[in-house]
Amino acid sequence: MTTDVDRTWIAEQVRAIDIHDFKAWHELEQKVHGVAFVAMEVDGSTFDVEKDGAFRGRVNLLLDAPYTGLSGQELKYSLVVPAGIDGSIDGKNVHVTNVRMQF
Questions:
Q1: I want to staple 100 with a disulfide (CB 3.0 to 4.6 A). Which of 7, 14, 51, 84 is the partner?
Q2: Structural domain for 94, as ranges
Q3: Cα–Cα distance between 5 and 87 in angstroms, integer?
Q4: Quick check: is 52 in a domain?
Q5: Of 79, 80, 86, 83, nearest to 101 (Cα)?
Q6: Closest C-alpha among 74, 97, 93, 75 to residue 85
Q7: Radius of gyration of the chain from its Cα atoms, rounded to whole angstroms
Q8: What are the DSSP E strand ranges found in 4-44?
Q9: Is residue 1 part of a domain?
Q10: Where are the extended beta strands (E) located within the chain?
């Protein structure tokens, strides 16, 4: 059962996390060498919030990764990786406890 909370506020707090702090990011770095975080798209309407403050939602991670072009020049390509976000709300604090990516 969900509770009535400001999902836009949750999205703003989630957008401010440092993705580099999560295990899923390190796993992605192992699979995509040289990957760089660019931005995070977050839509508050994707967050389902339980009465106890636990929530789940979805974000898109916008990333760059290097590759060698046909000319031999080092270039970058863009990736969009969907990710699940788990966390909780404690008063006026949002805590993200897990980032889930499948790749």
A1: 84
A2: 7-101
A3: 14
A4: yes
A5: 83
A6: 97
A7: 16
A8: 36-42
A9: no
A10: 36-42, 48-49, 54-68, 74-90, 93-101
